[in-house]
Write a structure and sequence with these properties.
Its cofactor is pyridoxal 5'-phosphate. The protein is built from 19 helices and 13 strands. It is α/β, with parallel strands linked by helices. It has a domain of 227 residues: Rossmann fold (3-Layer(aba) Sandwich), CATH 3.40.50.
C-alpha cells in the first residue's frame, strides 16, 4: 500500500489544502465549513485508475493487523495505530503518542437482545479505553500530529471526556494542556481526571457552546493547538473502532451501528471508517449508521424532522447525560452526510428512557455512562418503528465507562434521579431495575431473609 501524503478537503466547498494551510480553528477560509482528511488515490476513489494501482491487498492487510496483536511494540499494541496503513498522518512512528488505546471488547447483549427482540445485539464498549471513553482513539492521532508539528500547548472545550483524554495524552507527551469547561455542568469523575493529569482547568460561566466560542478565539491569538472534534485528525483515530468491529465480526460488518449524538463527530468518523474499508475491498458493504440524541439536546433530530438535515438550529441543551449536552454541534453536516449515505436514522430519547436503558446495560455486567445508554433507548424505538428488523445484527457504541458519572447511577438506584413527571408511565419498568442498598442489623438471619426474598 502506497503511504501517500494526505491532504485536507473542505466538506462544504471541496477546497483542498495541505496541512500547513490549516487555520487554528480548522475552518475553511472560503466557506467556513470543516475539513476532513483524505488520501489521494484510494480513500476518496476520485481517480479510479490511480486508486486501483495503489490499493492494498485486503487479505494481506487483515493478516498484518492480526499479527501485530502479538507484537510488543507500542504502536502495534495500540488498537488505533495497529491499523496505521489506514491513517498515514504522521511522518514517523517516533511521533506517536499512545496509551495503548483501542482494542476494546465487542460484547453480546443477551438480556437486551431478548427484551428488544433483536437476535444479534452487541455493544462496542469504547469506555474500556485508558481514560474511560472513546475520546482516546481520536486523541492519540490528533495529539501525535500536534507533537510532530512542535506545539507545546494543546487545548479543548469539554463536557468531561475530551478534557480527560486530552490531559492524559498531553501529559504522556510532555506537553501542557488547557481545558475550558462549563461551570457546574460536568460530572466530577471526569473533572477529576483532567486535574489529576495536570491540565490548566478553567470553569467558564457559560455552557459548552460558549466555552468553545471563547476557545476558538484563544487559538487564533496564541500558539495553542485545538483538540476538539473540529480537528480532522481526531476523526482519523475515531474511525478505527469501525475496523475493530469488522475484524471482531470476521470482516462481516453489522447491519446497523447506533451512536450517541453530541457534537456528532463520532458518527461521521465511524461512517468514514466503514466507507473507506469498503472502497479498499476490506469489506463488501457498510452498515446503516444511526444517531440517537437526548430529548433535551436534540438539534440534529429536530433538523432531520424539519428540514431533512438541510439546516440546523441550535438549542439550549439540557440533559443529565452530560457527555451529549451540546446544543450547537460542530460536526452536524458531516453526520448528516454519513447518515444519509448509509441509510441510517436519527432518534431521540427522554431522560427516563435513557436512565432505564443505562440500568439495563448495567444488568448485562458491563455498564456505561448515561450518554452511551441513548443507543439502547433509541434501538427500542427503531425496532418498534420497523426500521430495524429482529433478524438483523446491531452494534451499539458505548462511548464511556460507567464510573464516569457514578453519582447518576447512585441517584437512579436510590430513586432520586427522575421527577414524577419524567418517570410517568414507566414507573414499573424503572422500579424493576432499581437495586438500592438495604440497611440491616448485624445478624445472619437478617441477611438470609433478604437473600430468600431476592431469590423468589
Amino acid at each position: 500500500m502506497v503511504n501517500e501524503t494526505h491532504q485536507l478537503r473542505c466538506t462544504g466547498c471541496a477546497r483542498v489544502i495541505e496541512q500547513q494551510a490549516l487555520r487554528g480553528n480548522f475552518r475553511c477560509e472560503a466557506c467556513g465549513d470543516l475539513y476532513e482528511v483524505e488520501y489521494p488515490g484510494w480513500s476518496a476513489g476520485r481517480n479510479e485508475e490511480r486508486s486501483q494501482a495503489t490499493r492494498p491487498n485486503p487479505n494481506a492487510l487483515r493478516w498484518l493487523w492480526r499479527e501485530r496483536r502479538a507484537s510488543t511494540a507500542m504502536e502495534d499494541q495500540s488498537g488505533v495505530w495497529r491499523f496505521r496503513e489506514m491513517l498515514p498522518i504522521v511522518k514517523s512512528d517516533a511521533s506517536i503518542v499512545s496509551l495503548r488505546e483501542g482494542n476494546t471488547p465487542l460484547y453480546p447483549l443477551r438480556r437486551a437482545a431478548r427484551s428488544t427482540g433483536v437476535e444479534r445485539l452487541f455493544a462496542k464498549h469504547q469506555g474500556m479505553n485508558p481514560t474511560g471513553s472513546f475520546k482516546d482513539t481520536g486523541m492519540t492521532t490528533a495529539l501525535s500530529v500536534a507533537s510532530e508539528m512542535g506545539f507545546s500547548w494543546v487545548a479543548c472545550a469539554s463536557t468531561g471526556n475530551t478534557s480527560a483524554a486530552m490531559a492524559a495524552y498531553a501529559a504522556r507527551a510532555g506537553m501542557r494542556s488547557l481545558v475550558l469547561i462549563p461551570e457546574g455542568k460536568i460530572a466530577w469523575g471526569k473533572l477529576a481526571q483532567s486535574l489529576d493529569y495536570g491540565a490548566l482547568t478553567l470553569q467558564v460561566k457559560t455552557d459548552f457552546d460558549g466555552c468553545f466560542r471563547v476557545l476558538s478565539e484563544v487559538v487564533e491569538r496564541a500558539p495553542v493547538y485545538l483538540l476538539n472534534s473540529v480537528n480532522p485528525y481526531r476523526l482519523e483515530g475515531q474511525k478505527t473502532p469501525a475496523m475493530e468491529i469488522a475484524e471482531q465480526m470476521e470482516w462481516e460488518v453489522p447491519d446497523h451501528v447506533i451512536v450517541p449524538g453530541g457534537n456528532l463527530a463520532n458518527s461521521s468518523a465511524l461512517g468514514k471508517g466503514f466507507l473507506e474499508m469498503k472502497r479498499l475491498g476490506l469489506t463488501t458493504r457498510v452498515p446503516k449508521i444511526s444517531v440517537v440524541q437526548a430529548e433535551g439536546a436534540n438539534p440534529l433530530y429536530c433538523s432531520m424532522v424539519k428540514t431533512g438535515g438541510k439546516t440546523l438550529e441550535p438549542v439550549a441543551a439540557n440533559t443529565r447525560a452530560s457527555a451529549i449536552r451540546i446544543g450547537n454541534p460542530a460536526s452536524w453536516k458531516k453526520a448528516v452526510r454519513v447518515i444519509q449515505e448509509t441509510g441510517g436514522w436519527v432518534e431521540q430519547a427522554s431522560e427516563a428512557e435513557i436512565a432505564l436503558a443505562k440500568a439495563e446495560i448495567g444488568a448485562e455486567g458491563i455498564g456505561c455512562e448515561p450518554a452511551s445508554a441513548v443507543t439502547l433507548a433509541g434501538l427500542k424505538k427503531l425496532v418498534r418503528q420497523g426500521r430495524i428488523a429482529r433478524e438483523e445484527s446491531v452494534v451499539l457504541v458505548l462511548t464511556g465507562h460507567t464510573l464516569k458519572d457514578s453519582e447518576y447511577t447512585i441517584q437512579y438506584h436510590r430513586g432520586k434521579l427522575l421527577g414524577e413527571d419524567e418517570a410517568a408511565g414507566m414507573e414499573a419498568e424503572i422500579e424493576a431495575t432499581r437495586r438500592n442498598t438495604i440497611e440491616l442489623e448485624a445478624a445472619a438471619d437478617n441477611v438470609l431473609r433478604e437473600l430468600e426474598r431476592a431469590s423468589r
